[in-house]
Amino acid sequence: MSAQNVLFDVPGPKARARYRIYTAFTVLAAIAGLAVLYLGFNRTLGEGAPSILSSEAWAPSPTGQWTANKWLPFIDPATWTDYVIPGLQNTLTAALLASVLAIVFGLVFGIGRMSDHWWIRVPSSAVVEFFRGIPLLMLIFFTMALPIAINQLLPVFGQPPMTPGTFQVSALAAVVTGLTLYNGSVLAEVFRAGIKAVPKGQSEAAYSVGMNKTQTMWLILIPQAVTSMMPAIVAQLVVLLKDSALGYIIAFPELLRSFTLIATRHSNVIPAAIVCAIIYIIINVSLSRVAIWLERRNAQRGKQSAKVGAGPGVAPEPTPDAAVPGAVPDQGQETRNKPTEPS
């Protein structure tokens, strides 16, 4: 019995017929959904619209979203220099700053959760669980409202309120802070799981050669944990990049807000959304490709290290059956290997 038969029963004729019917229905439903979307945004669906069987219904309507005039703004260089490129720069700036800070946050609190000292372990666990349980949008709002909260608390401690403009939180700082706290808490669990997944023999070997716990953590465990958890880390960074679009709520001029301004100005919501989605997809796919390259590079380095470890200066261990020059033969083994004579 093959492994395929164990994991999956080969469908019979009736089952294959059912699968064909299900596939046909699924394809037809997908085509129907796309047709409804096209006709709806083309303004040729509904009361007063031409028949869907006529060519007029499928031709781009001047009042719809598929006409060529709706795509012309993206050919204009001013659209890119005034809206798209500045928004993309702000998005990448916020994502880059938040990624670095989130990785540092995750490492510190992920290691803190594994500390032997309760006065480090308990607060670290509380911080991670607290920020993991709060929605990212609320963290951004709380950061923006921090000056107001401080102004209300100052009279409680007998201090006069601050003058307007003394302490303000910019939209970039609020977005970066929210992304750092939320995604850093998630990465803390990723790092902790990666360190726990390293074989226990690695740390025992490090202790046996005289390393202390700090050296073992930073030189032995963390590098292996980061390598093994690289897909999860990159996936969370992709989520962080997409979550930067929430800065739109607090008027942060990121990529989504720039395309919203383009759609408002030229009344081309669907073309603007499509171009914006393509840019996000390109960035996220590029980030995933970088992660795949890093994984392959680390794997190749590991293979090269293994080859170096078994280089020409290292002699293979002799097997029990191999004859060792100068060694005294085992008399018992000779007796065991000697054929018995027939009686």
From TrEMBL:
UniProt record, GO biological process: amino acid transport
Keywords recorded for this protein, A-Z: Cell membrane, Membrane, Transmembrane, Transmembrane helix, Transport
A GO term, aspect molecular function: transmembrane transporter activity
Subcellular location(s) per record: Cell membrane
Compositional bias (Basic and acidic residues): 333-343
One of the Pfam families matching this protein, by short name: BPD_transp_1
Record-given protein name: Glutamate ABC transporter, permease
